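Could you help me review a protein record that somebody else here produced? This is what I was given.
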Amino acid sequence: MKPIKILLLTLLAALSLGAVAQEATIRKNLAERLPNLPKIDEVSKTPMPGLYEVRVNQSEIFYTDEKGDFLIQGSLIDTQARLDLTEQRLDKLSAIAYKDLPIKDAFTIVRGNGKRKMAVFSDPNCGYCKRLERDLAKIDNVTVHLFLYPILSADSTEKSRNIWCSKDKGKAYLDWMVRDVTPATASCDASAMARNVEFGKKSRITGTPTVIFADGTRVPGAIDVARIEKFLTEAKP
């Protein structure tokens, strides 16, 4: 082996060991000094010299120096590229692959051949969700996985339970969202609602409606028929 190659390998090994030691120092100091800080999932360098990303709770981000002497919560902005690096990172961490959606906690509405697929997180008391449902009624050949996501009020939870526990979930939901027919009182195991909310929190679903297409594209808020058709056409799982 040539001397220069040996030198390069030695340098790479030293850098790797240094990075491991750096991470260990940050983990140790933060854990000792901030015992209430959740368990650290990952420590990694950022593009800013001397600044490290500390990730906890799967997708919560802090920043620290190389010794863990300071902890910062906020956005890291690349002023040259004019990019919010923190937001980019959070989007990546909270991206939802369609195959990973907890379909068992949703009900399905099929129109036409159902070939195209999308998922909707919806609160029964959300006005924009009602508008979205009126537009979805104009879309053909689509399967919609509907996740009841009661985050607006206690009444949202009650309506979600009544819809989920009805004999025909899809009909009860559309009767309420499109025709203002209040869902009849019903009871059953509605723990799926709590699981949906927990899943949404981890995935940074902060409002309703939130639409997820088969290729993982996430669109918050109500969108019109033309945009729905565009996303359905372009989505490739």
Remarks:
- The two ends are 47 Å apart (CA to CA).
- The domain at 3-93 is CATH 3.10.450.70 (Nuclear Transport Factor 2; Chain: A,).
- The chain has a mean pLDDT of 90.
- The chain has two domains: 3-93, 98-234.
